[in-house]
Amino acid sequence: MQGLEQTIEDIKKMRIRGALDIAIAAAKAMHLVVKKDAKDTQELIKKLRSAGERLKSSRPSAVSLPNAVNYIFYIAEKNKELEIEKFREKISSEIQRFVEKQERALKKIAEIGSNLIQSGDVILTHCNSDTVNMILEKAWRDGKGIEVICTETRPRYQGIITVKELSSSGIPTTLIVDSAVHLIMRKLKVNKVLVGADTICANGDLINKIGTSQIALCAKELDIDFIVAAESIKFSPESVMGSVVEIEERDPSEVIKAEKLKDVRVLNPVFDITDARYISMIITEYGVIPPEAAYHLLKEKFGWELEL
Ligand code: RI2
Predict the structure, then answer these.
(1) Which pLDDT band, with edges at 50, 70 and 90, does 1 fall under?
(2) Ligand 1 centroid vs 307 CA: distance in angstroms?
(3) Residue 183 contacts by C-beta under 8 Å, 6 or more apart in sequence?
(4) What is the pLDDT of residues 83-100, one digit of tens each?
(5) In the CATH scheme, what is the homologous superfamily, with its name and number, of domain 4-108?
(6) 116-306, which class in CATH?
(7) Which atom of ligand 1 is nearest to the CA of 14?
């Protein structure tokens, strides 16, 4: 198992990526902190807090990361009266339960999502989402004859990971450049768009890999269902309180090497915001919901954080 420093570095460098994997990796790193030397429970809670804050600041935009860390803070606070060894035991088992819950959520979404897919569907996806891939692979294993179109997803080409994974499962897979979306939707008769999520806001807006909102606009124009797959850990309780999700900007060198262009500003925003009105439905582990129901899901599942 890797340590805290390595996890922070790996999240920053995107060696650990994908909103769910980031949350699980953060929880596992916190688990190691629980085992650290400390004279009493208070000192251990301090260590957990400092590790958690550093993990949270390693990458903005995917709310699954602060949600995972804040949940562990909450559990620690609730059990602060326990004597240190009992505290360690309690927090360790809660973190384990948390991780297992995320893994169950992923499987449940695969089940629910695959029910929405029919033989003959031509599905377009963007970037690389484990949640989306699980749905597509489950549908394929269930005998549904589908075809998947993947964008390459500039600048880091995570679409290549998606095509490799899906084609190795046997799914007929086509790779396109990001700017071919509108043309290919018409040409190959795409009838569903299925994307993952980094954050779902209380008003149903989606934060996902840059380019997602353009795809949603194309889908709207061509009357194609735009479906999002998101575990509840990706819903943002902070957005209920009015806070705005920070859009990560990464180094311009991911777009083009600096020496190739002089006196040109290169921007590299990593995520964008898709307005809820372009989203047909969100698949969660609790079932399929319209984007308008995001607030209700947050109220029900994040009561501990919202103090409702
Ligand atoms: P899963 C990814 O972000 C993509 O935007 C993807 O849609 C989202 O996380 C969810 O991924 P990045 O970490 O949790 O590649 O479904 O920047 O795997």
Answers:
(1) low
(2) 28
(3) none
(4) 999 999 999 999 999 999
(5) translation initiation factor eif-2b, domain 1 (1.20.120.420)
(6) alpha beta
(7) 13
